[in-house]
Amino acid sequence: MSEPLRTVVSHNGKPLGGQQTAPRTAETPLIVNGERVPHAVVAAETQNHEAPKGNPGSAWRKAANAVAIRTLLLQEARSRKIAADPQEVGPGRFEIEEEALIRGLLELVIDVTPPEPGDIRSEWEKDPARFRAPPLWEVSHILCACDLRDEAGRTKALVRATGILELALGDPGGFASLAARESDCGSKASGGALGQLGPGDIVPEFEAALRQLAEGEIIAAPVLTRHGYHIIRMDALGEGQVLPFEAVREKIGEALEKTAWARQARQFVDQLVKASRIEGADLNMG
Question: Which residues form the PpiC domain (predicted)?
């Protein structure tokens, strides 16, 4: 059963972050060790959490949990008198004070030692086939271009792409001719051929679709990217070769170190939760 909805507004009375409504769950205040978290903070955080259709309360509960953990970490950082030292995280972009405080706290309490050489080799030996050179994809496509901001135009492009896809699936051998006739991409001059591509060469949605295709296969549904809808065919697939241990030793070591860091961070948060009084969040829900 879906939860009753309530309007969510910011301090100036306007809908917050595009969130027009919130579930009854939102009526429960979030209080962490006596500190009442502003309602608007949780409402803003909901934008970062998905929820099943008809169950907006799920996103609210996830947001409340995330905010509760962030509040706990900030309380702990301030109790330890950690000074915020914002670092640059991108060209001209710096951490905000809260991010710097949490990073400073975690740097203080987490101490990860580099993995032993034997542990790195053991991880590789579990399944060497996991560590491969990047694949090469030889790809053709047909683009039905549209402006994603134009809902009517996007719908029209999808209808057109769906019709073209049916033609392509009905006559796979005629894909190049179909691309030359229908595609909105300059590659139509070469029958839709994009040549050889590798990871990072195309937009993420297109790349994700390529990873699902076998050689000679045409995508089952049009793929939407910022350029419009694509009908994609995998002309040839070159699987990356399995890499020798020495080529991946450093990468595996870094991955093991990150895993150990995340494990220690979870354990630290668990300790804070057990020692705290929290209302309005359920940090046992997973």
Answer: 134-236
Identify the burial level of 214 via C-beta atoms within 10 angstroms of its C-beta, where 0-12 means exposed, 13-18 middle and 19 or more buried.
exposed
The token duo for 57 is: 């309360």
Beta strands per DSSP E along 179-258: 193-197, 223-225, 228-238
Q: Which residue has the tokens 């994609």?
A: 232
**Alpha-carbon span 256 to 12, nearest angstrom:** 47
The CA-based angle 10-13-15, given to 5 degrees, is 60
- Phi, psi of 163, deg, nearest 5: -65, -40
Q: What's the whole-model pTM score?
A: 0.64
Domains recognised in the chain with CATH numbers: 136-238 (3.10.50.40)
User: Is a pLDDT exceeding 60 seen at residue 13?
Assistant: no
Work out the percent of the chain whose per-residue pLDDT is above 90.
Answer: 82
